[in-house]
Write the structure tokens for this entry.
Amino acid sequence: MKTMIGCCGLDCEKCDAYLATIHNDQALREKTAKLWSEMNHVTILPEQINCEGCRANGVKFVYCEQLCAIRQCVMKKGCETCGDCPDLDVCQTVAMVIGNNHDARRNLKG
């Protein structure tokens, strides 16, 4: 499995925070901060949009590093991703992600 597949199966290489970070794209940081702030009803500042990937070494978006229940569960269980967990098909923690993104499920199973 690619190291840029997040714990939940999402592809970090397609994430705007990752893209803004690796390309040092301030306009994308601003756009992403605005969108994510509106979607989540919180204030996210452009300078917070920095991430080198959920499972990669380096900086992570604050939500992913500190608040993501999926990532915390994977780390607690000692798995690489949810795909390594025998409870994947019944897990309510990752259910919304893999239910809304069929690529995430394929990434975890692949």
Notes: Residues 26-40 form the longest helix (15 residues). The chain has one domain: 12-109.
